[in-house]
Amino acid sequence: MAIAAVVRHVILKLRADRQEEDSRMNMDIVPHSTMTIIPSDTNNMSAQLQEVYEVIDILAGGIQILNEDIQRLSTESLALQNGTDTLNRSMAELKLSIQEQNIFFDGMKPNQEILQQDLASLKQRVDDLQFVSYDGTFVWKISSVREKMIDAESERQTSIYSPPFYSSQTGYKMRARLYLNGDGNARRTHMSLFFVLMRSKHDGLLKFPFNYKVTFCLYDQTPAQRHIIDSFRPEIRSNSFQRPRSEMNIASGIPKFFPLAMIQQEGNPFVRDDTMFIKIMVDFGDMPKTLLPYALSLNPGLPTNVHQTMIKQEAERRTHQSDTQPAAPLQRNE
């Protein structure tokens, strides 16, 4: 508004100067004469004054436009400020909503982990049921052997368990435990293979301590079938073979079951397609040790009753062969 004040001041000054000039002109008029003398400076002043009026008009128009622009910008600024305030409130609400969602998700994480664990446990149970055995024998398929051995060497997971199996529908519940990098004194030198007695719902009907011979067989997967076979008989005074009071008894078995150097050899016959097979057999009939290689060489795809028949026939054949062999002649001393 300072520009408008200056303009008004200039206009007033010009008007005053013009009035003063007009007064001088009146004084210069000659009495009783019809002629008026108008100085040339007056005409110049009028022309300049006209130019000033035109400039003033332009400035006044510009000022009006500026005032309108100021008013418009003020209105837009107020609207923008209101929009900014609304946006800030929305951002605050969104931030609060995100914080509440994060708190909710953080609260859900433990539940999600529990659900995942329950799901993994349920999946394991379903898998176990698919391969369950009720005749005291179990062929354990171990896949991803290389990865499991690396886990054992790094101690990320030192041992693995087989699925449970049973001696009968109402019998002992058992499983195997394998240390791929060895356990105790056998660590880093041998695979350690153990037998685990588990708690079952029929334990009240069973006899303890458990005293049946356990045989392990690592299958040679080539036609040579040079399986690795080893057995042990339970130490009945050990807690490992008493009636289980927890989910599982302490594992017991053969710490130096098989040398690591042989299982780690490239192209060894016991690991094929990164998979190996171990058979666990509980002997409830005191099978002669000489029959074990024959029993374990039978086709695992045959039914158990066929296995038992074939083993029985082989035992009878060997007994008959032994009975029919002629006795060695006695040497007479001359």
Overview of the structural elements:
With 334 residues, this protein is α+β, with helices and mostly antiparallel strands. It folds into two domains: 1-25 and 44-121; 132-300, Apoptosis, Tumor Necrosis Factor Receptor Associated Protein 2, Chain A, CATH 2.60.210.10. The chain has helices at 2-27, 40-130, 145-153, 260-263, 292-297, 304-324; strands at residues 137-142, 160-161, 165-166, 173-179, 190-198, 213-218, 228-232, 252-259, 276-283. The strands form two sheets. Strands 2, 3, 4, 5 and 8 form a five-stranded antiparallel β-sheet that branches. Strands 1-9-6-7 form a four-stranded antiparallel β-sheet. β3 and β4 form a beta hairpin. α1 runs antiparallel to α2. The N and C termini lie far apart (157 Å). Residues 32-36 have low confidence and may be disordered.
Global morphology: rod-shaped
User: Which superfamily, in CATH terms, is the homologous superfamily of the largest domain?
Assistant: Apoptosis, Tumor Necrosis Factor Receptor Associated Protein 2, Chain A
Number of DSSP strands? 9
Enumerate the spans where pLDDT stays under 50 for 5 or more consecutive residues. 32-36
* CATH top level class name of the largest domain: Mainly Beta
Number of domains: 2
State the end-to-end CA separation.
157 Å
CATH domain fold name of the largest domain: Apoptosis, Tumor Necrosis Factor Receptor Associated Protein 2, Chain A
Instruction: Report the CATH architecture of the largest domain.
Output: Sandwich
Radius of gyration: 54 Å
Briefly note the structural class of the backbone.
alpha+beta
Sheet-strand content, in percent, reads: 15-25%
Order of H and E elements:
HHEHEEEEEEEHEHH
Helix content: 40-55%
Mean pLDDT: 84
